[in-house]
Amino acid sequence: MARQKTFVSISRKAVRNNARVIRRLISPKVRLWSVVKSNAYGHGLVAFAQIADPFVDGFCVDSVPEGLKLRAAGITKPILVLGPTLLELFGPATENNITISISNAAALRTLAKSRRIPEFHIKIDTGMHRQGFLLSELPSAIRTIKKNKKLSAKLKGIFTHFASAKDINYPTYTDLQFDAFMQAADLFRKAGFTDLIRHTAATGGMLVSKKYHLDAVRIGIGFYGLWPSKELEMQKKDIRLAPVLSWHALVSEVKSLKKGDYVGYDLVDRLHRSAKVAIVPIGYWHGFPRSLSSGAGEVLINGKHAPVLGRVSMDLLIVDVSGIRCAVGDTATLIGRQKTAELSADAVARKSGTTHYEFLTRINPLIERKIM
Q1: Angle between the 64-72 and 45-52 helix axes, to the nearest 10 degrees?
Q2: Mean pLDDT across 360-369
Q3: Does residue 262 have an active-site annotation?
Q4: Do the domain assignments include residue 240?
Q5: How high is the pLDDT of residue 6?
Q6: Catalytic, out of 37, 123, 154, 166
Q7: Residue 2, pLDDT above cutoff 70
Q8: What is the pLDDT of residue 58?
Q9: Residues 266 and 182 in one domain
Q10: Same domain, yes or no, for 73 and 214?
Q11: Residue 201 contacts by C-beta under 8 Å, 6 or more apart in sequence?
């Protein structure tokens, strides 16, 4: 296989580790769903799902097209679409056994009129105030479902999403949301829907309290070996998650510059001493943000930290390798470990002014994901 100038490594061993850790935290009766929406948080939709498949009970995606990609790749386990679904995709969802989510009255009316009705879950807004039926809207929604035998037969679950389940010490709002969800579940139970899958917890909720586990947990960031928040990471020191993703590029050029030379676009950096620099063939097109320009960002080369010089370009970085053994073809690590040095996704994201969720998800999907 030809070498790539930049590539993302996905660790099979880390996925196995995280699956074992999560399984130990939930009851055997609780379904474990892997959230692989948005290109598996940048890890590669199909690549990651195929590794995780033996360890999970199902997958959560953002859209029917994502679900279809999994089916085409041989994934046969249940798939739940978390985002909205267009009318024209009800048919493909039905044909490929993909479950959709219905989160408002207009979508429910459209589904009721459809010739082909896929299995579906009802999403309930308990306080996130994003997608979902408000509690006051549920009696009408339940009547609509009960009047239509096809709808009644296809309703398989109800769920909500917590807004701030990231700190054991501050559970008040999460508990309010959970209580509201249990009220909603009771409405469905009293209406005769007694066998619905109930799910509320993503990674944060799963870690905060077992009472949120119910019938299934939807694990995204935790499966990738990362934490929803620093607070939870500090509060759960006995849990050992392993980062799944590392990102690398091959040094394409090395040169010596003189004191006073300018570096990069717009002459924003000028050398105060002679320096050796390396060119790394990635940039903001690949997902390395411009906010990491001028020393804010760095890469690892031969186990040493090499700061970014000048502006991050569309396809290229300039890094200072003065005092570092460096040659063309050496590996520069943007996220991950080299020898005893490490650049974690969380640390890099914080330096760039965002979260590891956004930073990883925005790694260009065209970059090859290599399973290691």
Answers
A1: 60
A2: 96
A3: no
A4: no
A5: 97
A6: 37
A7: no
A8: 98
A9: no
A10: yes
A11: 162, 165, 212, 213, 214, 217, 218
Whether residue 3 is contained in a domain is answered as no
Model pTM score: 0.95
Are residues 169 and 59 part of one domain?
Answer: yes
CB 310 within 8 A of CB 293: yes
Q: Where are the beta strands (DSSP E) in the chain?
A: 6-10, 31-35, 58-61, 79-81, 98-102, 120-123, 155-159, 197-201, 216-219, 245-250, 253-257, 262-263, 269-270, 275-280, 298-301, 304-309, 317-320, 331-338, 341-343, 369-371
Decide which of 235, 266, 283 is a domain's last residue.
235
| Residue 331, pLDDT above cutoff 60 | yes
Of the candidates 156, 236, 265, 370, the residue annotated as catalytic is 265
CATH number at residue 285: 2.40.37.10
pLDDT digits (tens, 9 = 90+) for 293-316: 999 999 999 999 999 999 999 999
Concerning whether 265 is annotated as a catalytic residue, the answer is: yes
Q: Give the residue among 235, 244, 237, 236 at the shortest CA–CA distance from 345.
A: 244
Q: In the structure, what pLDDT confidence band is assigned to residue 169 with cuts at 50, 70 and 90?
A: confident
125 and 177 in a single domain? The answer is yes
Tell me the CB-side half-sphere exposure of residue 38, using CA atoms within 13 A.
13
Domain assignment of residue 6, yes or no: no
